[in-house]
Amino acid sequence: MKKLLILLMSLFLLVPYVSAEQPISVYIDGKQQTYNQPPVLENGSTLVPLRGIFESLGANVEWNGTTQTVTATKESTTVILRIGSNQPTVNGQTKTISTPAQIINSSTMVPLRFVSEALGSDVNWNGTTRSITIISTGKNYDVVLNFPASKYPETAAHIKNAIENGESPICTVDRDGADDNRDESLKGIPTKEGYDRDEFPMAMCAEGGEGADIAYVESSDNRGSGSWVGNQLEDYPNGTRVLFVIDGNVNGTTQPVTPTIPTNPVPTTPSKPTIELTKDDYNCSDFKTQAEAQSVFEESLRIFGKDVYRLDNDGDKRVCESLK
User: Fold this and answer.
1) pTM here?
2) N or C: which terminal CB in the chain sees fewer CB atoms within 10 Å?
3) Residues 6+ apart with CB under 8 A from 308
């Protein structure tokens, strides 16, 4: 029995270890991209489908099947790559890349970093999560904050959804405006037992405040994430631009928010009575209401340009204030 056990253990050690690598995730301006052919990592370069990456970055794409050449144009920039060649051109200038464009599973794949940077985008690679973050407008941030989806799944889901709905993935730190931003963003949003009203961009971001995306997030998740973000950013001064990147798969969910609509009627200004100036002189005893006296006063201003009846004794433009 002992010999059999030793034999089985030996056989187990001889079995090669196979690790399933996590798929590569690509985010452009905070929005996760999906491709028919998944990204491929080759010789340290990530290859992605040409049309998906170029069109997401706002470039027009032309494919010449005869020469197997890709031409992409964005504003004043033209990028040309040929399948199998490691010498593409940018505005006519030849560049050298380590991994050329190639065809994989019938999809034309191009090197993501090269084409993104050639079109003026900023590229950030996170080897731990195998994720790539691209900002199409260039590097307009100072620091990257990798938000842990596994620790705070609901808040991560809210941040992801908010960015996909158009909120900026960049937070400009503004602690002084946090209270005002929070009041503005949560105005009309009722509280919910067991949940926090989470806003993104956060209240401590200059981009926060009115119009921020709001969701109900379980209190433990939201408060834990708030503390984590605060600790990560405590050494950065106001004005620091922080790029939020979600680390890991987002599996959390949030509760939808329905703003409270005020039901109180909007007060209307009572119409002023029409009074003809039939007397040479008026005093407050001639009127039943303050509104009547006010109308005579304003009519005298309109006709004569002054308070000919001397009804405004204290100069505050409100007359006969003892009347109701």
Assistant:
1) 0.64
2) N
3) 300
Hey, which residues does 109 pair with through a beta bridge?
49, 102
Query: What's the pLDDT tens digit per position in 214-254?
Result: 999 999 999 999 999 999 999 999 999 999 988 877 877 77
Do residues 255 and 277 lie in contact, with contact meaning Cβ atoms separated by under 8 Å? no
d(CA 83, CA 81): 7
Domains in the chain with CATH codes:
25-126 (3.30.457.10), 141-247 (no CATH), 273-324 (no CATH)
CB 208 within 8 A of CB 185: yes
Closest Cα partner for 246 from 138, 142, 154, 121?
Answer: 154
Q: How many angstroms separate the CA atoms of 235 and 297, rounded? A: 62
pLDDT digits over 80-135, tens only? Answer: 999 999 999 999 999 999 999 999 999 999 999 999 999 999 998 888 888 899 99
Per-residue HEC secondary structure of the chain comes to CHHHHHHHHHHHHHCCCCCCCCCCEEEECCEECCCCCCCEEECCEEEEEHHHHHHHCCCEEEEECCCCEEEEEECCEEEEEECCCCCCEECCEECCCCCCCEEECCEEEEEHHHHHHHCCCEEEEECCCCEEEEECCCCCCCEEEEEECCCCHHHHHHHHHHHHCCCCCEEEECHHHHHHHHHHHCCCCCCECCEEEEEECCCCECCCCCCCEEEEEEHHHHHHHHHHHHHHHCCCCCCCEEEEEEECCCCCCCECCCCCCCCCCCCCCCCCCCCCCCCCCCCHHHCCCHHHHHHHHHHHHHHHCCCCCCCCCCCCCCCCCCCC
C-beta of residue 155 within 8 angstroms of C-beta of residue 218: no
Is 45 in contact with 98 (CB distance < 8 Å)? yes
The more confidently predicted of residues 264 and 139 is 139
